[in-house]
Amino acid sequence: MSAVRIVILDSFAIDQGELQGAPGSTWRELAALGELVVYPQTASAEVVERAGDDTVAVLTNKVPLGNAELSALPALRYVGVTATGTDIIDLEAARARGIAVTNVPGYATDSVAELVFALILHLSYDVAGHSAAVKAGVWAASPDFCFFRQPLVELAGKTLVLVGSGAIGGAVARIGEAFGMRVVRAAVPGAPTRAGQPRAPLLEALPLADFVSLHCPLTAATRGLVGAGFLAAMKPGAILINTGRGALVDDAALAAALASGHLGGAGLDVLTVEPPPPNHPLTDPSAPWAGRIVVTPHIGWGTVESRRRLVSEVAQNLAAFLQGQARNRVV
Predict the structure, then answer these.
(1) Which of 45, 131, 168, 214 is least surrounded by CB atoms within 10 angstroms?
(2) CATH for 5-107+304-322 (3.10.129.10, 3.40.50.720, 2.60.120.330, 3.40.50.300)
(3) pTM reported for the whole predicted model
(4) Residues recognised as catalytic
(5) How would DSSP label each residue in 53-96?
């Protein structure tokens, strides 16, 4: 019996080029399951050719697999998403063709929650900015023993509103409470109400917030959720944090709220288009409000520990499928 052919379409985000086109230590567990072929990146037009007629399992992080791709791969029986979100897969087409789809929930819970507070603390204390100013000689030239680039804000006693209270939202809540923050869990539009899990109406929660952190999935009901109305409902001077999905936020509305001064600041780890175009308004260093926004390049999921968990879970998902078992099955 020939080995199962396994193709990874976009390994680079996870292994950061370690493999250089050949299975290495990062993917050792997967390589033990069959004939493993690894591509650092794959364009949509290359999917069918690279997967080929005899590939049983395809793994993808961000490369979309729609009905056209799934229909053109006759041997395909398994799609492993090397992430949590499955919006890049046509799930109905997979279901119709009997193709199993898995994902990896929960692998980055701690890393994303920690980044939320890295962004919050950056916007509250500007440690990096103060350090840069010291190295530029500002402290040496100061008339006093200290100087402040901005008003410094304690987290203790502040209100943190969470829009989405799944695993990551729950971890953020625990950290916030440890800082002495008041945590308010807001209802997510379109999400079902669960017994024993009370949620504050969103428009009632937003005016209370010193910080709003987004942790809800991207759905038809939440796409563009943070628009002009959402931002206007926030307390003047409040700070928005988004480590969820970029399309939860209307970029133009966010830029306008920053420009008007109504929004105190924003910490973003995601944007609607990734990587963003060079002229993206939210990454413009010359914007008058550039000092009140920090944008990181989708790093929340990517700690060494998180990526190790991800790779192991991906291999365990496929191993379970090959043994006729269901593990982290979406379809």
Answers:
(1) 45
(2) 3.40.50.720
(3) 0.90
(4) 245, 274, 298
(5) TT--EEEESS--B-HHHHHT-TT--EEEESSS--TTB-HHHHHH
